[in-house]
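Re-run with default settings, no changes from the original entry. Doing this only to confirm the output is reproducible before filing.
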Amino acid sequence: MKKLALHWQIIIGLVLGLVYGMIAAQSGWGSFTTDWIAPFGTIFINLLKLIAMPLVLASLITGVASLSDLKKLSRIGGKTIGIYVGTTAVAVTIGLISVNMLKPGDKVPVEMKEKLQLTYKKDAEKKAGTVQDVKDRGPLQPIVDMVPSNFLNSASSNRNMLQVVFVAIFIGIGLIQIPSDKGKPVKDLFKSLTDVVIKLVDIIMLMAPVGVFALIAQTINKVAGDNPSQVIELLGALGYYMIAVILGLITHAAITYAGLMKFMTNMPLNTFYKGLAPAQLLAFSTSSSGATLPVTMERCEEELGVSEEVSSFVLPLGATINMDGTALYQAVATVFIAQALNIPLDIGAQLTIVLTAVLASIGTAAVPGAGIVMLVIILEAVGVPSAGIALILGVDRILDMMRTTVNVTGDATVAVIIAGSEDQLTIPTK
């Protein structure tokens, strides 16, 4: 009997998790779900996070060292960062167009605005409190944060991924500079470590359907609790806001990414999406680009034909600085909150949103509480009260799943483009 493809296994797990979550919410099984279902999702995410750091370190060192030429490294690095920044700017612009067309902030009833602000007031204050620490940082602090004083401390937390990326590139450059015979043992060590971690990915993915089931079930449990009517009420009030975000994300994926793939590579879109599907589904269920990174790398190399040299450089970098979905969401959320609070934003303010959101998406990885914290900074940059984030916190988890999927899709798109431009793309024929 033919084994069911991985993406179908994950889809089945996702659907069953959705069905179970609905039944659990109706039946009052919230405590049971938290105690007996959710831990399997946590274990699954922890396993993926466990191997993310060694994978980034080993694969990036191997990838940079294999370039053997600093000119090639700077060329690939320049193209990668350039495309990442460009697509982020486009994403923010699409988000602004979407929210200005639909004007979702004008459609929220006054009584619901008051209820949302009251319900999520404490959460909003907690998020806003973190912002002061970020604002007190100097303009070059993100660069300072990127260079660790102790590598072992950096490697102890996935939040420090950008520091690990820096160290890996630094070591890779060192290996390029020494005679190949002296560097070979180190290269072989990290190449073997990469192979081991990739094999561990295969083992962990055996648990993917169960892990996704548990994650989706717990997500519904958190959103709905034991009162599903609250969800319906919330979705009704914020439906237009969610539509604005989702429309922007779909447009960005369907036009920007598809357009880049069509004009800059020879890879058929169906091949791309079929090969990447498990990583996209994982991104959706985990809401974490970092946790999904090992799977993204595996799918790009084995299913999309991206060389290890390119994927090991482009994808870890993308997981830390390429946040198209997050930047688009921040743009929509900012204008939505301004509309809901009857604060007009002129062209100058919206251009400020574009610039701030692009810069924020690059620096997000180094900031705990990332997306929402940076959103508060964007709000304050255009004169919108930060307390307004209370309006959107209720549906943030749902939208987080979708924007993470777009983030991962963007990383893979750029990896394919860079591989194609460097003649390191082998398009699957199956």
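The CA atoms of residues 41 and 214 lie 5 Å apart. The chain has 18 helices and no strands.
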